[in-house]
Amino acid sequence: MYDIIVIGGGPAGMTAALYAQRNGKQALVIEKAGFGGQITHSPKVENYPSRLTMSGNEFADELFSQILEQGAEFEIETVCKIEDLGAYKAVLTEEGSRFEGKAVIIATGVKHRMLGLEGENDLVGEGISFCAVCDGDFYKNKTVCVAGGGNSALQEAILLSDKCSKVIMLQDMPYFTGEQRLQDVLFARNNVEAHTGVKIEKLLTQNGEFSGVEIKDANGKSTQINCDGLFVAIGLIPENEPFKAFADLNDFGYFDSNESCTTKTPGIFVAGDCRSKMIRQITTAAADGTIAALAACNYINQQ
Questions:
Q1: Greatest CA span in the chain, whole angstroms?
Q2: CA atoms 81, 83, 84, 90: torsion sign
Q3: Which residues face 287 on adjacent strands?
Q4: What is the DSSP letter of 113?
């Protein structure tokens, strides 16, 4: 029997485990993929207090080592169900495991939003990517497109422009929504081309391999763009459906919880990007982890 089971090993989940251990509670962190979550896709993190610069992977590795040093345990499995048994909760995984804890913190984060085009899933990893720091080297001295216009898309494009011969930005809105500072850096580069008010209508292939995209502008004109790769940065979506019986979801699928990180179910808490919030940053994820862990500790102490 664990004191606290944390579902998700991103900044929120690992911070929750850290605070649980520091408060004398045994924590188990269950992560389905790699520890660190979306932050591991960031080549540079320059907005975390006390650190001038670091990579997302460095942050994740150091935080993971920290929670292990504090005594937290971890499992690499996919949680599919929670059972509320009153005095304790049972967490079940697709792999067939069952873990029991006095409290549960859901910190499942988010996943990449897809374009919804025919053949898209088949081309992921074979021409379509989401992470420039992971896959950018494959496109050195080549032409790539970046779908999106927010901060994530601009940051990806800046990194790619250091490696690729040409970067073509494709934004479906009439303007880019990312920070002006990032826009100034990106669009000052000679190898960057920008298109706004265009929608990617089709993925192009040649001999079964990705070869470009077809776009349509506001006037209905279609244009084919030949490129070697497409980086998709059009937003994120939560993965909260398996837990909606215990925590209400808003219209966008995020947990409808306030800054207290509590839910309608006693003993179940939520933290991080999966929660309804105005700002999603590494610092706010860590803050959520802290709040959820202390709330869970207080809940256990009162039982």
A1: 65
A2: negative
A3: none
A4: P
Nearest to 114 by CA among 267, 259, 231: 231
pTM for this prediction: 0.75
Residue of 233, 237, 243, 235 whose CA lies nearest to 30: 243
Which token pair is 57? 């992977």
- In sequence order, the β-bridge partners of residue 124 are 128
Phi, psi of 287 (to 5 degrees): -60, -45
Is 100 within 8 Å of 114 (Cβ atoms)?
no
Beta bridge partners of 30: 7, 75
CA 153, CA 168: separation in Å to the nearest integer? 11
CB 115 within 8 A of CB 237: no
For residue range 244-258, what is the model confidence (pLDDT) as tens digits?
A: 999 999 998 999 999
pLDDT, tens only, 65-79 = 999 999 999 999 999
- The whole-angstrom separation of Cα 247 and Cα 89 is 14
H or E element in which residue 224 lies = strand 222-226
Residues with Cβ < 8 Å from 173, sequence gap 6 or more?
149, 196, 197
* Separation CA 45–CA 31 (nearest Å): 22
Question: Cα–chain-centroid distance for residue 202?
Answer: 25
- Find, among 107, 67, 39, 63, the residue nearest to 271 by Cα: 107
